[in-house]
Amino acid sequence: MLPALYTLADEYIGAAQYLQNLDLDEQTLSDTLEGLVGSVEEKAINVSFVIKELRYLSDNMRAAEQDIALRRKSVEKREAYLVNYLLSNLERCKINRPIESPYFKISIKQNPASVVIDNAGRIPCNLYRYPEAPPPEPDKKAIKTAIESGQDVAGAHLESTNRLEIK
């Protein structure tokens, strides 16, 4: 079993620095480092297998979450329909007393009064809410376009990073 990747990387860097201080010919230096690179590459391949498996697993979980959300919404819709169905039929029959069973008690309760807006234009201004506007934030796309077109933008710069691609 190979040591951890960070251990192999440390060994490679240490060996490269040590070997550069020796007076070795290019071929010997290259052959020695190639053996160490092989271990790092083998470990990188093994780690990549794990990354691909985790990516596959997370993709499947995301798909399952979406399926479950759709099923949950369907169940909630059916529940709301049945609640309305039961309530409207009990009201039609004017059954106001509780219905008891060994499993639960069914009763019709009156909800607290709620406000219905008939015409928002006629409501006095002192009864409006004025939410605070969100604070302005830098537009990164506009800043990138400006910098790429040669404009100097104080307080911002472009920076490229690396990403790992496993196909």
| Uncertain residue segments | none
- Multimerization status: single chain
Mean pLDDT level:
89
- What sort of overall outline do the alpha carbons produce when their principal axes are compared? elongated
Distance between the termini: 25 Å
| Residue fraction in strands | under 5%
Helix percentage: 55-70%
| C-alpha-based Rg, rounded | 34 Å
Helix count from the secondary structure assignment: 3
Count of extended strands: 2
SSE ordering = HHEEH
Taking the sheet with the most strands, its summary is:
2 strands, antiparallel
Q: Helix/strand/pairing class, anyone? A: mainly alpha
Strand order of the largest sheet: 1-2
Write up what this structure looks like.
It is a single chain. With about 170 residues, the chain is mainly alpha-helical. The protein has a domain at about 5-110. Helices cover about 55% and strands about 0% of the residues. The protein contains three helices and two strands. A two-stranded antiparallel ribbon has the order 1-2. Strand 1 (about 100) and strand 2 (about 105) form a beta hairpin. It is elongated and about 100 Å long. The two termini are about 25 Å apart. The mean pLDDT is about 90.
